[in-house]
Specification:
- The complex is a heterodimer of chains A (about 110) and B (about 120).
- Chain A contains no helices and twelve strands.
- Chain A has strands at about 5, 10-15, 20, 25, 35-40, 45-50, 55-60, 65-70, 75-80, 85-95, 100-105, 110-114.
- In chain A, the strands form three sheets. In chain A, strands 2, 5, 6, 10, 11 and 12 form a six-stranded mixed sheet that branches. A four-stranded antiparallel sheet of chain A has the order 3-9-8-7, with no helix packed on it.
- In chain B, strands 2, 4, 5, 6, 9, 10 and 11 form a seven-stranded mixed sheet that branches. In chain B, strands 1-3-8-7 form a four-stranded antiparallel sheet, with no helix packed on it.
- The chains are: A mainly beta (about 110), B mainly beta (about 120).
């Protein structure tokens, strides 16, 4: 079955330290992968995506993600965390069975400690 | 910038009421989606629409219906609200092809409480 896993419900990082939010996927064919962020009481905002090309993708707010085909992973990273990065992060992959749908991970709450 | 608006940020309804949630997008997107978001469960797709008057069931359509009479507007209807439909409801839109295929743009959400 097609799926996306975010193995950590919560990640805590000290401000200024690097952060990683993990995502692994299981889909057939070539994946289109996405990261979204949700601030409290807000809708989701697009951060970045991988369609093809360079495995390292850069996105908004200094975030980047690395596509690793052999490990079927698409981890979100940032070299130096800010308190304002505290939010809920969702990974998603295009469903190969549909031209429209994304398959979503359960989300990871990122907490940046001052 | 794409703008997706939802008719209410917060809504409180009584059990058995018929509830309408409205969503409007201004980027001429073909696809529109309704999700519900619950803690620990992520986003679950209720219904989506890929064209006017076209709709397809998502993962959890029971207790919901939708309407898309105009391209920019997608309505979610709770025929008879129940307490287990208390949730955050998110609307999204996306284009077919173009510069941002599959990328979904979200509204701010409606937090619905059914008492």
């Amino acid at each position: 079955a097609q799926s996306v896993a975010q193995p950590e419900d919560q990640v805590k990082v000290a401000e200024g330290n690097p952060l990683t939010v993990k995502c692994t996927y299981s889909v057939s064919g070539n994946p289109y992968l996405f990261w979204y962020v949700q601030y409290p009481n807000r809708g989701l905002q697009f951060l970045l995506k991988y369609i093809t090309g360079d495995n390292l993708v850069k996105g908004s707010y200094g975030f980047e993600a690395e596509f690793n085909k052999s490990q079927t992973s698409f981890h979100l990273k940032k070299p130096s965390a800010l308190v304002s990065d505290s939010a809920l992060y969702f990974c998603a992959v295009r469903s190969p069975d549909s031209n429209y749908q994304l398959i979503w991970g359960a989300g990871t709450k990122l907490i940046i400690k001052p | 910038d794409v703008k997706v608006t939802q008719s209410s940020r917060y809504l409180v309804k009584r059990t058995g009421e018929k509830v309408f949630l409205e969503c409007v997008q201004d980027m001429d997107h073909e696809n529109m989606f309704w999700y519900r978001q619950d803690p620990g469960l992520g986003l679950r797709l209720i219904y989506f629409s890929y064209d006017v008057k076209m709709k397809e069931k998502g993962d959890i359509p029971e207790g919901y219906s939708v309407s898309r009479e105009k391209k920019e507007r997608f309505s979610l209807i709770l025929e008879s609200a129940s307490t287990n439909q208390t949730s955050m409801y998110l609307c999204a839109s996306s284009e077919i092809g173009g510069k941002t295929p599959y990328e979904q743009y979200f509204g701010p959400g409606t937090r619905l409480t059914v008492t």
